[in-house]
Design brief:
heterodimer; A: 286 residues; alpha/beta; TIM Barrel; eight-stranded parallel sheet; 14 helices; B: 333 residues; 2 domains; 36% helix; Gfo/Idh/MocA family oxidoreductase (chain B); Gfo/Idh/MocA_oxidrdct_glycsds (chain B); GFO_IDH_MocA-like_dom (chain B); NAD(P)-bd_dom_sf (chain B); oxidoreductase (chain B)
Amino acid sequence: MTYGRVILGDNQFLGVNHSDQGKATALFNKFDEADAILEVIGWAYEAGVRDFMFTTHDRYYPVFAEIKRSNLFPGLYFTPSLPYAHKYANAMAERGMVDVVLSNLGPVSKLRLASALARSAVGDFTGLMKLLVEVELLMCKGLQVRGVFLLNIMFDLLLGLRNTKSLEAYHSFVADRLGVIPGFFTMNHPEAVKVLCDEMGLKEPWFCSNLNAGGFRMNPSPADVLDSFSSGKSRNIAMSIFASGALSSEESLTFAMKAKGVDAIVFGSSRRENIEKNVARIIQGE
Amino acid sequence: MGLSHVTIARQIAAPDSVAVCDASRMTCFLYRRMGIKAYGSVTQALEARGDSIRGVIVATPTPSHFTIAKMALERSIPCFIEKPLTLSVTRSRELMQLAEQRGVYAQVGFVLRYVATFSRLRELVHSGELGSVIRYQAEMNGNVITKPDNNWRSDFAAGGGCLNEYGPHLIDLCRFLFGDVTAIERAEKGHIHSTRADDRIAFDWVHDCGVPGEVKLDWCDTSKRKSVLRFSIDFEYAQVSCDNSALHFSFKEKSRLTGEDRGRIAALIVPPRVSFYLRGEEYTLQLEDFLSVCLKRPLRVEGGGGQVDPARLADGLAVDQLIETISEMAGLR
């Protein structure tokens, strides 16, 4: 299984805008209703997008329920990115950690939680990692899942700590047990390739990383990131491709499409004309 | 959060050169399982590593900052201390004097100085490109306290309340941008859910450079999803608003700036590049600055941005002093 050339992202639905917090807040409020989100996914679907990548935010429950109930978007694949950290952080401040963990467990047995916690107490986080994936995946029940991506807030932490055991456990659990593509968001693509491919020996793992003409969040340098994208050691999804300052959206898109080693491009937008225009460009290629 | 300090420091310096001290045996055990050297106390670490210690990062709860920083400074070891510096002006001053006597470098974790938009704002204030600053407003709002609470967060004396929580960040940024504060003219608190601490606080002050500022903090703002910090600055030639993601300019009629000037001034800001990104460039940048002093070599990567003026102990002390005065004027003490 692999990704299509173009993937719909979800920053617009969650009020994430790296260059304007004001706009971001307005969007977050606009997409408070499931219908508003469904409408945008619908535009992308009609334009030919068959992959939707999203963060496991609570606001998708009614959206996914409607997609399943009405069998909207047949052939659309879903890729949850997890964990949505704000969810846990906010809930923990309100209700306390134990309550949050228990209430998010759903049908996963408390016995398994106990065992995972016991193992993590002796420094083995692999059980907890699997449990986290399973719990977060509950919202995708009944949907076609293409892959599961670990968000950079967690992946880059594990990467920095060289906690390769947890990364291995996650990778094999998603690939072997769930049978879908395991992936990683990272803001440190060269370091991620070095550790996962060279040191851990993973074969062509999927990364989702910033790649843009402006060098926005391409660490430690744009040249290093372009090099590691084109190394052929990993499969890559380019994101934040429009964060390029002076360039037009047309030129930004061309830059990402011409870069070596880009298997797919993920972008989000709340405007129909942008979605249609960009999807058409990416699908028809050079 | 100690874990992110450890992660960034390991990535910047050599992984094996970073060790952790934590009073919790469980935490130490977990760090060791991850292959990180861990000590149960600062004394133990000092005994074991002694002269080889090149720097100390203090990321413990505030009440222990003083003791740990003092142990390091007395041994002339450079120190990075998370904000707020200490819970008392006297102790903050003692640390500052100790560092001065010993000639040791010490940095305070006012991380917002490293946010690209605020650095740019400071350049605009200093360069005079937009004329002089007439006045400004600064506010920080968030939806932190949503119901009456009965813990330390709702108790000013225990370090709770909006002034203690939001104040250090915003007050340091105001000083970073406009310099020292000469006088506080007014301070008023407001309660929404907390009775023993402020849920809102507003104060007016004047900086040494003559610029007046109005500051408002509110942690019961239900319209906010996360904490937002915003400056509105009235320059001679433009009205500028700035948060941690963007600057917005509204140029004034009388400004003689050409279209080209305006374009350059309002150009989109690309955050600096960092050696390892974890949770925002600013967190890595501040540790790159600290560790470059400890390791005596430059650590910024290419495109890592211009020199930032890191917060020193004197800045930490000044913030503690302002908080003390504001809280007295507002009737919180």
